[in-house]
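ok so heres the complex, two chains, lmk if somethin looks off
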Amino acid sequence: MKVVRVSLILLFLLGVFWFLNLLVSPKYIESLVEGSMISEYYDSPKNHEVLFIGDCEVYANFSPMVFYEEEGISSYIRGSSQQLIWQSYGILKETLKYEIPKVVIFNVNAMRYSKPVSEAYNRLTIDKMKWSKEKVEMIFSSMTEEESFLSYVFPILRYHSRIFELSEEDFTYLFQRRQNTFNGFLINQNIKGVESLPTKRPLTETRFADITYEYLDKIRELCEENNIQLVLIKAPSLYPYWYTEYDEQIKEYASKYGLDYYNFLENILEIGLDYHVDTYDGGLHLNLHGATKLSKYFAPILKEKYSLTDYRDHEEINAYYQKELEKYYREIGRGV
Amino acid sequence: MKKVFILGIICLFFLVGCGQETIQTEEKYSFSYNNMEFVLGDVFTREKFGTEIEYSEVASCAFEGLDKTFKYEHYEITTYPDGEDDRIYSIYLLDDTVPTKEGVKITDDVSKMTEIYGNDYTQQGESYLYSKNNTTIQFYTSNGVIIGIEYSIVMDN
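and the predicted structre for the whole thing:
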């Protein structure tokens, strides 16, 4: 009888502990929505021929809805803020458990970062990932000195002070999620044109760090093993500066391994980008208008070069995209 | 009496130690120009530093707040948000008319830099970084000649 009582008390305490962990964890639904993007993928139908991985330069600059509307391409963006290359590798590995796309597109901006940048960005990418071997590896490779693995397992260790700052969002989304993106694309319709940019600093290191090459190799090898075409891109963000020395190294790497590399900074005129109106933050990210232009430019290239399927003829997938497109245009009309 | 003496000596050591530490923590890299003192981490206002000739804002990927850059004729100040204030994050010198407080300027060679700042630097490619109490001064060089100088504050993540 005593054993039962003790067990019940223990069970109750465990339940309270679990609930508190859930309660204090940031929900990333109404504020810092960038933190929910990685997990939105789990709810999406797994029918993608194209997968984007990388930092904010993918989730802000490319619209899968436009890809579909223009060429019937089914794609998903698993991007997150300041996604580091070892995180992109982990996300790719995890995604391959769910589906094998035909093409993986990696935005090479992350090559400039050879070590974890900040805990805040790590959290946005990792916190809401499902538990897996990849998540554990990613935590260990991403942690800054101040972070601990246990705080990812038990968020209360990190977020206990939030208990005094809980908002309505914390209760509303305690047991539910809301879609904030369209296949990983985060809409931003604001306009803040480029007026001027900070002075370009001389490069301190002209060669990318070995660790970034190591992970680029891993991404490439993983794609090869799964018969996936890896494509490298550099989104047309004007800042942080993409140095010629960086570009040359990527061109060299792409040529060595027979990969395609698209540096969209070289195609600004053809794309029709106008940085006075097509960016929401002075040249770092494109707004909806700019992303639409870039996606319309890239869609036929993708379709033709990689012989992608036109899913507009596929009943089930088309029905999904038509529903999403309806929501997409409703969202745009509303002015997000 | 002997015990009191030893205790006194120990206290003296502690006091001297504390005093030295206080002096050290106050030593930071800072820049001055036209009788204006630019201290990293201080609140930036146009009233104090004048109106810039160019202004740009850089947002972070997800978080609120803007890093602002104020470009003047000979230097560029970048600030970081701290509540309602903007604090000086970095000062980037743009030409050879503005030397550092210690007397090194763009176009000087690396030997002058080491003569004045010493050899306790971290080298990354062709740049040299000196650190002092959460502030840094970085010399960007090319072929042994200084082509850029930047003061920065070390921020916690």
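quick notes: The interface with chain B takes residues 32, 34-35, 55-56, 81-82, 117-121, 124, 144, 146, 192, 195-199, 201-206, 239, 281-282, 284 of chain A (CB under 8 Å). thats all i got rn
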